[in-house]
Amino acid sequence: MAVKKIKVDYLARVEGEGALHVTLKDGAVRDVELRIFEPPRFFEAFLRGRAFGEAPDITARICGICPVAYQMSAVHAMEDAFGVVVDAPLRALRRLLYCGEWIESHVLHITMLHAPDFLGYESAIAMAREHQAEVERGLQLKKVGNEIVQLVGGREIHPINVRVGGFYRTPTRRELAPLAERLKWARDAAIETVRWVAGFEFPDCERDYEFVALRHAGEYPFNEGRLVSNKGLDIGARDYEAHFEERHVAYSTALQSVIRGRGAYLVGPLARYSLNFDRLSPLAQEAAREAGLGPVCANPYRSIVVRAVETLYACDEALRLIEGYQEPARPAVPVEPRAGSGYACTEAPRGLLYHRYALDAQGTITDARIVPPTSQNQTSIEDDLRAFLPDWLGLDDEALRWRCEQTIRNYDPCISCSCHFLRLELERG
Amino acid sequence: MASAPVVVIGVGNTMRADDAAGVLVARRLRSCPGVEICEQSGEATALLEALRGRAAALIVDAAAGTRPGRLHRLDAAAQPLPQGLFGCSTHGFGVAEGIELARALGALPPVCVVYALEGGCFDTGAPMSDAVARALPRLAEDITKDIEKCTKRT
Known about the structure:
The structure holds 2 protein chains of 2 kinds.
Chain A: E1 3-9, E2 18-25, E3 28-36, H1 43-47, H2 55-60, H3 67-82, H4 88-119, H5 124-130, H6 132-153, E4 162-163, E5 166-167, H7 173-198, E6 212-215, E7 226-229, E8 234-235, H8 240-243, E9 244-247, E10 256-259, H9 269-276, H10 282-290, H11 303-323, E11 340-348, E12 351-359, E13 365-371, H12 373-388, H13 397-409, H14 415-418, E14 423-427
Parallel strand pairs in A: 2-14
Antiparallel strand pairs in A: 1-2, 1-14, 2-3, 4-5, 6-7, 7-8, 9-10, 11-12, 12-13
Helix pairs in contact in A: 3-4, 4-5, 4-6, 4-11, 5-6, 6-7, 7-11, 10-11
Chain B: E1 6-11, H1 21-28, E2 36-40, H2 44-51, E3 56-64, E4 71-75, H3 95-104, E5 111-119, H4 130-153
Parallel strand pairs in B: 1-2, 1-3, 3-5
Antiparallel strand pairs in B: 4-5
């Protein structure tokens, strides 16, 4: 019996700290373990006893890359509990803020973390020496995302302008106007980015995923919609825990989510795109077709192309929102706390983010539950490796390790959010 | 475009013990004429943006080390920073990477000095080590002299 192990002790170019251990026995994959060893941070526990209004700012601290997602899921869950509906211009501003975060997060991942895998560089810095124009374009594009978050959210990282019921201060049309000019450049740069990544070489790998994402009657989803899948799921956020289950695995500090009775599922750009292609703007649809994507994409390596299409959509949508923006009569609608529970799912750049809060009559949080996208994708990441590894066993150890890491990076995993750097350990025989 | 030709960038997190050193030194230099003072978390792309278009950048940051309070003055324009010195960046993409990204993109100022102050404790919520706290005034004085040289040149 020959056993060989591949170990990546610290996965590079991912958000957070984790490791991968793969054991191969007699040429077959025996074990794949995505080990997340960042310590848990107990956010759910220290939300207990805090006022409902503190949830958006406390949960924003879970992630420096996707704080807006945490704020959005928090405010929507609170508003669900209190029966609050925000005015249309406030809703539009929330979508605009989310566009900013998608642009920042997607462009960072495409340019600095994932593209080096396809072009054969060990880092973005090595890539930048030979692909200066593409890296500069990505950095400038990301900056436009930062500018949206700065203007609408109050600052670039961990925005401070979001509150239950709306915002503390809303921008004027005049303040948004210069952003529209920047976004026209960004939209063209995003089209160029889609063309650039579409030219990469992709392994011919597809899987039969259960895609899970929000779906809204008329919009590509950010904040609202039914939770649907390509395998029959169609529920509201309130029913999330009846259909999804978080499991503890001994080798990871992050919980892993499964759909009850079915197992692994996929959230994030591939799922959103495949369930909502018809909700993309005509420009984003055209760019996707030109990039060789159909209305469904089940090749995880092509997620970089889908992320670029979503970046284009976010630029296009942000422009539409700014052009149609009417200054709200008030920065927030009144909020009256009442005892009960509130539920919300919104679409973080990496995928679905679920929040549930129980509140007393004064609006004090008595219980909280947060399920981030990376927890939900962990099982699919391991399943991808189990499915694809047998075809790669002819690769030498270094190439194999690289391919494993690339497979994980397809997911833009935010390990810090999920628990809480990645190490790869491969045993083979 | 950068507004001042000379910039001092204090890097760190004021809530993580000795990691506050860079930011606290930058705050001591606010009254220096003809120089822009920035505070940053150490994220590489933000650092890159602060370096663009400058004649000189003086970066001050706490570094992982064995002797808290020991100072290293590094000429980053001449050569890359030693690896592993700055262990507190977010997700391995911090000060050293920001400087190398700037170098790769031709955006590194002709003068780029990094003052790395060795820290002993980077725990969240912990107080700054005495040795690091004692080193701050002297470091601010050293940087003031370098600012004067840089502003005269520009």
